[in-house]
Structures are given as C-alpha cells and as structure tokens.
Specification:
Elements lengths: L9 H5 L4 H4 L13 E9 L2 E6 L2 E7 L13 E6 L9 E6 L5 E5 L7 E6 L3 E7 L7 H14 L2 E7 L7 H7 L5 E4 L2 H16 L2 E7 L5 H8 L26 E4 L5 E5 L13 H4 L26 H6 L5 H12 L8
Parallel strand pairs: 3-5, 8-9, 8-11, 9-10, 11-13
Antiparallel strand pairs: 1-2, 1-4, 2-3, 4-5, 6-7, 12-13
Helix pairs in contact: 5-6
The structure holds guanosine-5'-triphosphate (GTP) and zinc ion.
The site of guanosine-5'-triphosphate has 18 residues, from helix 6.
Amino acid sequence: MRRYDRRSDEDDIRVRPGRRGSRPRTSRRPAYEDAVEGFVITVDRGRLTCVVDGRTVTAVKARELGRKGVVVGDRVALVGDLSGDRDTLARIVRVEERRSVLRRTADDTDPFERVVVANADQLAIVTALADPPPRPRLIDRCLVGAYDAGLDPLLILTKSDLAAPDALLETYAPLGMRHVVTSVEELAGTGAARVRELLDDRVTVLVGHSGVGKTTLVNALVPPERRRATGEVNVVTGRGRHTTTSALALPLAGAAGWVIDTPGVRSFGLNHVDPGRVILAFPDLEPGARNCPRACSHDEPDCALDDWVAQGHAEPARLDSLRRLLATRDRKEGD
Ligand SMILES: Nc1nc2c(ncn2[C@@H]2O[C@H](COP(=O)(O)OP(=O)(O)OP(=O)(O)O)[C@@H](O)[C@H]2O)c(=O)[nH]1
Ligand SMILES: [Zn+2]
C-alpha cells in the first residue's frame, strides 16, 4: 500500500530507487560550504528571485544543476553576490529536497507534467459567490489536484455581498474541508484576520478564475508595498495582466507564512492524477478499496466501495463526492 506522503521531486520518480543512493554524491560536486539558504519567490525567463536573509536577490541556476527545474517555493542554496544590489547575480548551487510538489498538465491530453509550486502546505481555491458565478467543476478539479499533491484544500468564497454561500457549502460539506466566506468590505475590517488565521505559518497556493477577486483578497493579506491594482488590463495584449505563467510568492502581513499567486494557472489538467492516490485523502473509504479489482477506477460495477458504504463504514455522501471528483478527470475543464 502506498503511504499518503507528499511526493518528492519529479526526478526521484523517474530514477529507479537505489541508483541515486549508490552514486557517490560528493565526488565531483564542490561542497559549497559557504552557500546561504534562500527561498524562490518568482521565476522569469531563467532569472530567479529569491529571498535571502530578508533581502531580495536575483539569481541564475548554476551549470551543475543541469536541467533540474527550480520553481517558486523551492528552498535553495546560493553562492556569489548575495547583496541584492542592482545588476548583481547570485548562483543557485543546490535545490533542497521538496516537501510537496504541485503539478499540472496543461490540459488532460497534455503528456507533460509541469511542476507549478514546491513546498506548499495548502491549496486555497478562490471562488466568487457571484459575478462570475461559481464553477463547481473547476473547484472539483482543483480539489483533485490538491489531494493528488497531498496539500490541504481550503475554500475561500468571495463576494459574499452578492450571493449566499449555503448551496455551495452544502455541496462541499461531505469533504470536510476548511472554508472562509468573505467580501471586499469584510476584508477591510475583520475579514482579513479571519483569512490570515487560516494561512498563518503555512505556504498557501491560491488558485482562482479571473475576476473572482483574488487580487482584492491578496491585497488585504500582504504588506501595503506589495499591493497591486485590481482589474488591471495589459495594454499590450488586452487580455488582462496575467500573461506570465510564473507564480509569485508574497509574504503575509502580520503573520508568518506565504501566499503564492498563480496567475497562469486557471485550470488544472489532471492527466497525471492517479485515483489510487486521490483516495488516500479519504481515510474512511481507503480501507474499503483493498477489495477492489486491480487498478480500480472506483467507478465501476466491481468496485468494493459500494459494499463498504453499505456495511456502514462510511457515509454514502463521501463516496458520492469521491466519485464526482474522480469523474472530473475525464471531463473538460469548465463544462
Ligand atoms: N461586489 C463585490 N465585488 C468585488 C469583491 N471583491 C472584488 N470585487 C470586484 O471584482 C472585480 C475583480 O476583482 P479582482 O480582485 O481584480 O479579481 P481577480 O480575481 O484578481 O481578477 P483578475 O485580475 O481578472 O485575475 C473588481 O471589479 C473588484 O472590484 C467583493 O467582495 N464584492
Ligand atoms: Zn474501487
């Protein structure tokens, strides 16, 4: 049985176990004993912005890292000019082992997985209660992505001045995830503290469709100098300002922790997701799957979960939710 651990780096998955361990690790690599720890907050065309001792340092990957990707959220070791002064460049010589990896495929037919963010603890799905209306299928896809990556999901419902959250909360109640309901007005008052409490001391990735109020939310959470204008439109493309695909990590004001905005991630291709891993987020159902046929999709006549629920081991609504989530893999985003 697989353990519900956070998957480590993609390289580890491709390399057969044992090979890596038997390689003398330090034979060719310099030790870089003077390397300093940093945290990658954004990546732009090969330039990585890192926070090092509170300073913002621009860095490039050292050649010996080869093709290994470095992504937002990575903890890295840097050498070289760490002053953070203009026109200086540091070098990233090591990427520390990742606690978690959030990945996606661009769409369900895309064979390439991309690592979006490393070391996140939580995935916050930001959804407006109206304008634009909630898209439960998209929420489901994000949830599957979170469960697959071993991240705790959090539902942030915005624009509560426009519609009530009850129906949506009822749909997601069987999943028992944390949620918060807020609006721009509440965020200016006590709402920000309520949200921050759920983010404190953690690295939280925010995903949400355009217009849901993500910028408004982020601005209420980060220090004033990190705020951005809402509803900005990119004058060059006319397609809104979100034309880059890199995520951006921002510190929380008045709390420990980071929020990572993912402008390029509006959907989750789920090609890479394994139902056997998603069910690990359902500890009440998971033991029942031991009697399933091999590689059970958990949505087929011989699936043992129906009996498991009939025997009273888990609530039927939990199985319904699991099946709905797994089915989103086969549907197009947004339908
Ligand atoms: N009624 C209402 N409108 C809101 C609320 N929060 C944000 N808005 C409005 O919704 C629009 C989108 O808000 P943004 O914060 O820019 O949303 P976003 O998700 O960052 O959108 P993109 O910039 O397109 O990605 C703006 O016109 C905001 O003024 C809210 O709580 N209530
Ligand atoms: Zn099954």
